[in-house]
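Hello again, I could really use a second opinion on something today. Take your time with it, there's no hurry, and the full record follows here:

___
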Amino acid sequence: WADGLGAQTFVGTSGRVFPKAMKASPLLRAWLKRLEDQGVRFRWRARWTGWAGGAVTFDDGDEIAADAVVLALGGASWPKLGSDGGWTALRAARGVALRPFQPANVGFAAAWSPGFADRFAGTPLKNIALTFGERTVRGEIMLTRRGLEGGAIYALSGLLRDAIAAKGQAELVIDLRPDLNAGQAVSKLGRASPKDSLSNRLRKALNLGPAAIALVHETGAADIKAVTVRLNAAEGLERAISSAGGVAWEAIGEDYQLKALPGVYAVGEMLDWE
């Protein structure tokens, strides 16, 4: 589909798909042109306000009767850009079951020491593995002044968020060298000079960078394959990439039609996709 719009893609290490141009605007422009060529009519700067009888109403006073209405109104993440979940009041008033919005694909706060945060905020940790509970994800993360962000932690964000809500914290285990088993890591360290400091042994024997070595010291970890970081809060909806919650699954049929509103469909991040 993207190739047909002249926007070739590639699959990143996280398994996500990206445009080779590393920006979405050329794909969006080509997609809009194709739709216009197919007879789609766009009306900009008009806000949907509900229904009048069987017609859809807008804040400019217009009413449009339609055989089917597909709502793709987004979730509630980054509300300053317009995705504020304001449509939920209109849905609830029509008897559609909803779930509270929650941050998803989001960073987490950790209680870094000031020195660690000052020096390493904005530094990535690459080719690592994160484990929480029974799930392990490989990829990379970013150390931030507030805690951790990045693709690998986003993949665990729902589990981590729910654990923090239930227990007040979540212990994330980081394997800084997932391509080595424990025996190989111990063997490599054992061949390092005992006269070297721990930091130099980690750097020389295991090829760890300054940020990874500092994280070992920051957490007091005794094992580079099990560095435990205690997370104490998820970032809020205003900083989340996406949101969980919204229209409950039991409120829609297999074709995404709202059971309470025949002929009206809901798609995308409006749905409680988690």
About this structure: The longest helix spans residues 25-37. The two ends are 25 Å apart (CA to CA). The chain has a mean pLDDT of 93. The helical segments are 25-37, 88-93, 114-120, 151-155, 157-167, 182-190, 198-206, 210-219.
